[in-house]
Request: fold
Amino acid sequence: MNILDRIRRHMSRALMVASATALIASGCGGGAPQTIDDDRIPVLTARVERGDLRRLRTYAGSVEGIRQATVYGRIAETVVRVHVSEGQKVSAGATLVSFDESGPGSAIRQARALAEDARRNAEKFQRLFEQGAVSEQERDARQTAYDVARADYESAQDRAVVTAPISGIVTEVYTRAGRQLASGEPLALVAAVDTIRVLVDVSVYESGDLAEGQRVTIRAELDTSMVAIGWIDQISASADADTRTVSLEILADNLDRRFLPGMFVRAEIELETRAQVVMVAREALVYRESGMGAFVVRDSVAHFVAVNAGIESGDRVEIKSGLTEGEEVVVLGQNNIQEGTKVDPTEETRRSSASAAP
Reply:
């Protein structure tokens, strides 16, 4: 039987005792109540510890690259080839996607035909000008038309090959070979991710505890073993009038490139650290008429001790006075005991706190 079952069993038996006592008292004309069970009360206990305690504040956010760019198609054409895959490292100028240049409805083919026609006209009017059959103005107009058509063709050729605007990692590919796309559709996302950016919104009432340069631990939402250490890089100078929030820009090193744009993360901002303080599980603290305290177990007897608490971190609370390292305190079953109650303690084997420094 575990400690929770024992405590529940004791509470049930205590109710039975109370009921039986009331019946005996009424049946005996109000005589002295009789003791039915004097077993010690089962409680769960834990040790008062000493260690480093960090006060944290956690916010949700999503990852961006320190620089990133979504690449869009600039012509309505069929994709011939996608030259990259997600996770691939590319340099600025590397080809990402190629479009069809030769199809019957190809804008590039049409631009090439117009440029070729304009070239022939320009050459024709140049010969006529040399023969005195047309004016210089007419010759120049045909040459200008050719120059424009040639520029349009070169531009169409340029739009048919989409290149990376920055060096980085291809984190998203939105198209595939054979797709007919409209102009302006997204093709890929390229991000420089050696350093990542996380943007979070913070209540204006909490922003007073924050400062640029404060240490931040970034944890992946779906895999908390993925961790990056960063810092607050910028705090917006003004709050949003509608939401009453302040924007934080957090930067973190990501040299192993495990964090990629779009991932949801938790940003744990370290507000302060207390070194080697006495601390106890939050569950150990109870409130009585005299104030806040904890039940310390000595020789199987519970004694209520007033405490002065400090900062909290995770499931740990700093104790400035009242308890000493190594003392055994009740963390479950306090409602069943009072000063001087005899108890049957079961010590919790291990407690952990993600916020306590290792």
Notes: The chain has three helices and 20 strands. The radius of gyration is 37 Å. The chain has a mean pLDDT of 85. The helical segments are 3-27, 107-130, 136-160.
